[in-house]
Amino acid sequence: MVTEHLSPLDLAFWRIESADHPMHLGALAVFEAAAQDPGPASRPRSGSGRGADSGPGPGEDPESDAAARAAALLATRCTRVPRLRRRIHDVLLPVGSAAWAPDADFDPARHVFLVRTPDPRAAAGPLMARPLDRSRPPWEAHVLAGPDPRSFAVLFKFHHALADGLAALALAATLFDEGPTVRGPARPQPEPAAHVPALRELPGLLATRIQGVGQALEIGAAMARSGLPLPVPAALTAGAGGTGTRAVAGLALALDDVNRIRKVAGGTVNDVLITLVAGGLRRWLAGRGDTVPEGPGPRALIPVSRRRPGAGARYGNRLSGYLLRLPIEEPDPLRRLERVRTGMDRNKEAGPARGAGAVALLADHVHPLGHRLGGPLVAQAARLLFDILVTSVPLPGFTFTLGGSRVREVYPLAPLARGHALAVAVSTYKDTVHYGLVADAAAVPDLAALAEALREELDALVREVS
C-alpha cells in the first residue's frame, strides 16, 4: 500500500490542536421529515458502492422517529466511505510527519451518535467543545433528537486535518440520500517514488525553491508591515487561552435582502455578508455597554479556497486567506459596506498568495519536525495575527435529504483559535443565508444577542437602500 502523508497544511492543523482548542470544523443541519414515506429517496446514490441501507434498530419505528432512522442510515453509509474509515498516525520518515492508514477496528458506533435532548441547538455547543478522538478516524456525526419526533438536527464534526469547508461538504454529501451529485475530491493519487534529479533538472528545481522562499519572505514581510495587534474589545478575546467551553448560535436571513443591498450599494454578496459582521459587532458591543473603539477595528482572517472551481481535488486543505480590518468604528451602515468593499478589492488585487492573510501558505516551507515541535507555539500566536475568523462555505443549490427528511437549515461552524472568543461562518443554502456563530461560552454568555444584532444590521442596510 502506498503511504499517503498529510500535506504540510493538514499536518499543521493536526499539530496545533489542544484539549481546550480542538481543531475541528462542523455544520449543524436542521432536518424536517417529509409528510409521506421517504421511499426511494432514502436509498444511496447510484454508483456509490453502497448496498441496501439498514433501517432503524429493534423497537424503533421509522415513521414516528425520523432521528433514529437518520442515525441508522449514517451508521451504515459511513462504512462504505473509505476516507471516513481512515485514521492519522505518526510515521518515522520524514521525521515529525504523519500519514493516513485504514482503521482496522473501525466501528460506526464510535462515530455516529443518537442524542436525545430537549433543545438540539443548545446541545451543539458542548459537543463542539469536545475534541475528536485522535486515535480514530477524525470525524463524528451527532443526530440530535428533540421533542418533535419528525424533526431533528445533525451536528457533523470533521477535523481540519481531514478537510477544509469544501472538502467537508463533499464528505457529508456521501452520507445523504441520492440526488444531484456533489463533485467531491478525487481519489488520492499514489505518491511518486523517490526521484534523484538529473543534472539538467537542477536549475529548474533551484528556481522553484528560490521562488518558494521568496514567497515566504514576502508573506513574512507583509505580516511585519501589518504591525503589532491593536487593542480590541474585550468581548473578542478569551483571556490567556480560553475556558475550553463552547456556545453555538445560528441566524437565518433572506438572500433576497442581501442581493437588494448589493445591487444598490455595489460590491459582492460576500462584501455584504462581511459588512453584516462588522455592523453586528458594533451594535452588539454598544448594546452590552462596551466601548466601541474609535480607531482601526479588529482584524478579520477571511479564508480563501485555492481549489479550482468545478474540479475534483484531494481531501484536506487548499486554503489561503485575506486579512481585513472590520470598520466597526464607522457609524454609517453604507460607509461600512464601502470600506469593506474597498478592503476586499485591495486584497483581491494582491491575490491569495500574498499579504499577511496568506500565512497558511507558510506551512509548505516548514519541515514536518518543525510542525511537531512548533505546533503549540503557532497555536498561541494566532492572537498576534488576527482577532476574529470570518469564513464562507458555498453550498449547492439543490435540497439535501437524509432518510427522506429534508435539510431546512445549515449552520456552518468554525474552530475557535487560542485567545479568541468568537468565530463566524456563513453559508447560503437555497434562498437563505445562514450564519453559524461559535464562541467561548464563558467569555461570550450573550451569543444570541450578537445573532440578533446581525439581523438588525441587515434591516438597517435594507432601509438605507430602499
Write the layout of secondary structure elements.
Elements: E1 4-5, H1 8-15, E2 24-32, H2 66-77, E3 86-90, E4 98-102, E5 112-116, H3 120-129, E6 139-145, E7 151-159, H4 165-173, H5 202-225, E8 247-254, H6 255-265, H7 269-287, E9 299-305, E10 319-325, H8 333-350, H9 368-380, H10 382-385, E11 388-392, E12 401-402, E13 405-413, E14 422-429, E15 432-439, H11 447-465
Helix pairs in contact: 1-9, 6-7, 6-11, 7-8, 7-11
Write up this protein.
The chain is an alpha+beta fold and 466 residues long. The protein folds into 2 domains: 4-173, Chloramphenicol acetyltransferase-like domain (Chloramphenicol Acetyltransferase, 2-Layer Sandwich), CATH 3.30.559.10; 210-397 and 417-425 and 432-465, Nonribosomal peptide synthetase, condensation domain (Chloramphenicol Acetyltransferase), CATH 3.30.559.30. The protein contains 11 helices and 15 strands. The chain has helices at 8-15, 66-77, 120-129, 165-173, 202-225, 255-265, 269-287, 333-350, 368-380, 382-385, 447-465; strands spanning 4-5, 24-32, 86-90, 98-102, 112-116, 139-145, 151-159, 247-254, 299-305, 319-325, 388-392, 401-402, 405-413, 422-429, 432-439. The strands form 3 sheets. The protein has a 6-stranded mixed sheet with strand order 5-6-7-2-13-12, sandwiched between helices. Strands 8-15-14-11-9-10 form a 6-stranded mixed sheet. It is globular. The N and C termini lie far apart (62 Å). 45% of the residues are buried. The model is unreliable at 37-60, 180-197 and 204-225 (pLDDT under 50).
